[in-house]
C-alpha cells in the first residue's frame, strides 16, 4: 500500500513532502500542533493537523455507565468493576472518615482532661508558693530599709565632715 505524501504550512512556510512518520515525530516533539495546517497530496484542501486521526487520535469511547473506575490520588488505576464494588469502597472510606473523627475527638477530650489537671496542679502550687513569695517580699523590704539606713548614715557622716 502506498503511503500518503504530506505537506505542512507552519509559520508562513510550506514544508514537504514529508512522511506520516516525520509528522508523528513532530507531534511528539510539540513541533506540530493541532492548529497547524496539513495538506495530503491529491486532497482538495488544507486541513488542521488535529483533524487527522493518524496524528491526533480521538479519545477512546466512554465506558459503560454501569461500570465504575476507582483512582488513587496519583490517578493510577487501582480497580475497575461494577457499582457493587464501588459501594464497598465508599463504605470503607466512610468508616475511615468516622474513625478519624473519633480519633480527633478522643485526643481533644484527653487534651482537655490534661489541661484541667494542670490547672488544679497550678492552684495547688500557688498555695505552696504564696508563703515563699511573702518571705521574699519581706527580705526585699528589709534590704531596701538597710540601704536607706546606710544612705542616711553616710549622709550624716558627710555633713559632719563638711559642715558647709
Count of DSSP E strands?
Answer: 6
What is the residue-averaged pLDDT?
76
Q: Looking across the biggest beta sheet, what order are the strands in? A: 2-1-3-4
Sum up the overall morphology in one term.
elongated
What is the SS-derived class? alpha+beta
In terms of per-residue confidence, which ranges show pLDDT below 50 for 5 or more consecutive residues?
71-80
Figure out the total of helices.
2
Helix content: 40-55%
- What Rg, in angstroms, do the CA atoms define? 44 Å
Portion of residues in beta strands equals: 15-25%
Largest sheet geometry: 4 strands, antiparallel
Distance between the termini: 131 Å
Along the chain, the helix and strand elements come as EEHEEEEH
Describe this structure in words.
With 164 residues, this protein is of the alpha+beta class. 54% of the residues lie in helices and 17% in strands. The protein has two helices and six strands; from the N terminus they run ββαββββα. It has helices spanning 20-28, 83-161; strands at 6-10, 13-18, 37-40, 47-48, 67-71, 77-82. It has a four-stranded antiparallel β-sheet with strand order 2-1-3-4. It is elongated, with a radius of gyration of 44 Å. Mean pLDDT is 76; it is low at 71-80.
Descriptive labels:
single chain; 164 residues; alpha+beta; 4-stranded antiparallel sheet; 2 helices; elongated
Topology:
Blueprint: E1 6-10, E2 13-18, H1 20-28, E3 37-40, E4 47-48, E5 67-71, E6 77-82, H2 83-161
